[in-house]
Amino acid sequence: VRLRGSARTLSEGANPFSPPWTRHRRHRCRHRHRHRPDSHPSLLNHFWPKHVSAGEQQVSRTHWTHPPCVYTPPLLDTFRTQTMRILFNSAVACALLLSASTSAFAPPNGRASSSVRAFGVRSALRSTAESSAPPSSTGVPDGINPEYAPLYQRKSRPEYVPGKISDPDYVRIFDTTLRDGEQSPGATLTSSEKLEIARMLAKLGVDVIEAGFPIASPDDFDAVRQIADVVGNEVFEDGYVPVICGLSRANEKDIKRAWDAVKGARRPRVHTFIATSKIHMETKLCKTPDEVVDIAVNAVTYAKGLGCEDIEFSPEDAGRSDPEFLYRILGEVIKAGATTLNIPDTTGWNMPWEFGGLIKMLRENVPGAENVVFSTHCQNDLGLATANSLAGAQNGARQLECTINGIGERAGNASLEEVVMSLALKGSTQFGGGPGTGKLYTAINPVHITPTSKMVAEYTGMKCQPHKAIVGANAFQHESGIHQDGMIKNKSTYEIMTPESIGLMRGDAQSGAGIVLGKHSGRNAVGTRLKELGYDLEPEKLNAVFARFKEVAEKKKGGLEDEDLEALVTDQAGLVNELWEVTGLHVSTGMSGIPTATVTMMGPDGVERYVAATGTGPVDAVYKAIDQITGVSVNLLSYSLASVTEGIQALATTRVMISPKTGGPNESLSTNAQSGITMEKKFSGAGSDTDIVVASARAYTSALNKLLSWNVRRKEMESQEEDDSVANSAISAGNAEVTVVGGHQP
Q1: Residue 214 CB neighbour total at 10 angstroms
Q2: Could you give the 3-state DSSP secondary structure of residue 509?
Q3: How far, in Å, CA of 339 to CA of 571, rounded?
Q4: What pLDDT does 516 receive?
Q5: Helical H runs in 113-190?
Q6: Residue 546 to residues 129, 469, 540, 565, 694: CA-CA distances in angstroms?
Q7: In 3D, which of 488, 457, 487, 490 has the Cα closest to residue 473?
Q8: Residue 726: exposed, middle, or buried by beta-carbon count in 10 A (0-12, 13-18, 19+)?
Q9: What 3-state DSSP class applies to 443?
Q10: Residue-by-residue DSSP string for 357-404
Q11: DSSP letters spanning 465-508
Q12: What values do phi and psi take at 59, rounded to 5?
């Protein structure tokens, strides 16, 4: 460290040997470095590592400023300078010898080292989260090796036509993360978070985005409509634009609400459903089979009458329904105008061979089956959601419904990343027997899987288990000595795909570059490491993470690990809806006396307020003080505190979940899409700091900000609806008055 600092100082004319007490602290210039444009690579058969020349590596430069040199005796200065030069030249020679020895012992197949490959592929796999415009389908950013030009080509897909797919081998991907995924307990998303996720899903290339359940609440309606108006009209250069879908129960009120939310999209779809299994019809609906058929037909007919040309119908709990009844009801909704028939294994009851057989029977026995697209929606109660979805595809289903990270009701849904990568790797060889040639494919761009997965995990607060397929932290980790030996010799011995193919860079920490992120690290180093970890942050968010990074790095010795950096990203995720901010905090606690906390907060009006409160402990006192300042009334449903890394200086991450008190000033009710039950919404928050009390305060404030933002949007929507209702009443009254005065019909 002394040698490196001395060399840098000599190169800029300063004296490195001045006494410590006369030396000034160096400050890094706050120059922003311009990055190359980000990219949008697609898989395109790049599942295997490729050689990347060392010339692709780039090293960011850091600028320094120094005070005037301090005088030292000339003879001593010359001696020290010559000594330093000898040491510097020796270090350079050692580095060259080390590089030569590394090349001499390279594997006989001549592949580049993992560090060189990581630098080269990183430049090819940058995404464009900073750009608001849709990514180019053919453009390659300047400075990119021409070898990687094919990675920037978006995958082609058949022209979208409701109810038809011109290529029988093409499989549509229907993502329901924003609807079924959000029904996971504690996975509440705000409107702005939903919009960001929808944009990432469009970048990923999903065919259909189920944006939500509009009737559930005004906020849900507003979020779906915003996605339809924005993402549903952002046409990519290759002509792609996602279908925006809204879910509704089989009644006119729900369907009208769903249609109003999605009709602003270029390709709107209404998805309506009703249960068809015996247990559901008898105990939940209290309806006869004939009544259920009538309700389903009327629902589809009403949706078509509103002007919707793309209608999806789902017989809920089809996996436990009588096949003969399914033939009947599905045939009737086809006649009424349904274009997609979704077959849900709602309870995750079926085995793959059962579910695949059901899809085959429906295609063969439902009247008019040739005029619709069959779809699957599989729950993961027995861990078979992905297997059942793929079995459905093998037997003719050409739309697969899934969610990012497999989140959803109870045990979750089929995982998008698992379904997509299974088809990418095995779709051309293992799916014969259905329509077409059996060489199934999708138009998903897998290099965006990791950024999308991380965004969903951060915003929902639902982290993936480390051993989760494709996107888990351990998915591309190797600890066994036998595995490590195989990986050193040939990476394909234990990896059937490269992490780069899904947008996950193994990074410098994985390849031995040894970059330590500490208090002297710059924004470029932090941003580069975040991209290697799969985070595509906009400049504003990167600045916020970098500011927190500097605060923590000043307190934490030894630098920050990857886990610390990811915790800071999560800590800043709640700032999207920031209304209140903790600006000061002091606690007094111990074995004697009453725990007391003094909290200072900045409100939405820019005014700082402070309150002192007591509690059963320091965290309880802090939370009571925050409640008094913000004026909320909530129940703390869960509180968890974990150390990100080991050691006394480890970063602490706190996660909380809150729910407004029933009848309180912040009451927030929503309707569950499946059960129709109205209940209080839950809001989660996360915070990180080396001080556990500060981390707890940040997490609680993040959850409160989500709650308050949700209530603000809900009240705005209710006010707008009241104004519209008053205006319509006035118009009706005016028309009636004209009729009476005239004395006759016009």
Answers
A1: 28
A2: helix
A3: 43
A4: 52
A5: 114-124
A6: 17, 30, 10, 10, 18
A7: 457
A8: exposed
A9: coil
A10: HHHHHHHHHSTTGGGSEEEEEEB-TTS-HHHHHHHHHHTT--EEEEBG
A11: PTT-TTTSTTTT---SHHHHHHHHH-GGGT-SS-GGGGT---HH
A12: -120, 120
- Report residue 383 as tokens: 């861990």
pTM exceeding the 0.85 threshold for the entire prediction: no
Task: Give the tokens for residue 396.
Answer: 């003719």
Residue-wise burial string across 137-162, b where 16 or more C-beta atoms lie within 10 A, e elsewhere: beebbeebbeebeebbbbbebeebeb
- The angle formed by the CA atoms of residues 557, 558 and 563, to the nearest 5 degrees, is 100
Q: Report the DSSP beta bridge partners of residue 376.
A: 343, 400
No. of H helices and E strands in the chain?
A: 20, 18
Chain centroid, CA 110 distance in Å: 38
Q: Is the CA virtual torsion 359, 365, 370, 373 positive or negative?
A: negative
| Pairwise CA distance, residues 215 & 671, whole Å | 8
283 φ, ψ (degrees, to nearest 5):
-100, -30
The answer to whether 14 touches 66, Cβ cutoff 8 Å, is yes
Q: DSSP per residue over 637-692, as a string? A: EEEEEEESSSSTT--EEEEEEEEEPTTSTT--EEE-TTT--EEE--EEEEEEESSH
Q: Among candidates 250, 246, 340, which has minimal Cα distance to 294?
A: 250
* Residues in CB range of 158: below 8 A, 6 or more apart: 165, 166, 167, 170
The pLDDT of residue 601:
95
Which amino acid makes up residue 281?
M
Structural contact between residues 657 and 637, judged by C-beta atoms closer than 8 angstroms: yes
- The residue type found at 382 is L
- HEC string of 265-322 equals CCCEEEEEEEECCHHHHHHHHCCCHHHHHHHHHHHHHHHHHCCCCCEEEEEECHHHCC
Instruction: Quote the CA–CA distance of 36 and 17 in Å, as a whole number.
Output: 39
Max CA distance (Å), the chain = 116
Give residue 73's pLDDT.
45
Q: Report yes or no: 481 and 534 within 8 Å, Cβ to Cβ.
A: no
Spatial distance between the Cα atoms of 332 and 470, rounded to a whole number of angstroms: 40
Q: What is the mean pLDDT of each run of 10 residues along the chain (746 residues)?
A: 36 39 39 38 39 38 37 45 55 48 35 32 32 46 45 83 97 97 85 95 96 94 96 95 98 97 98 98 97 98 98 97 98 98 98 98 97 98 98 98 96 97 96 92 93 93 92 79 69 86 66 51 75 76 83 70 75 66 93 93 91 95 94 91 77 88 76 68 84 92 86 75 68 54 40
Beta partners for 343?
A: 376
- Residue 312 pairs with which residues in a beta bridge? 271, 340
DSSP state of 589: -
Question: What are φ and ψ of residue 610, in 5° steps?
Answer: -135, 150
Residue indicated by tokens 């997965």:
453
Contacts of 404 (CB under 8 A, 6+ apart): 175, 177, 181, 197, 201, 415, 416, 417, 452, 453, 456
Phi, psi of 422 (to 5 degrees): -65, -45
Contacts of 34 (CB under 8 A, 6+ apart): none
Supply the DSSP symbol for 349.
-
Measure the CA–CA gap between 169 and 122, rounded to whole angstroms: 33
* Cα–Cα distance, 459 to 108 (Å, whole number): 46
Q: Tokens in use for 304?
A: 């078509």
Q: Which of 466, 429, 698, 418 is nearest to 563 (CA)?
A: 466
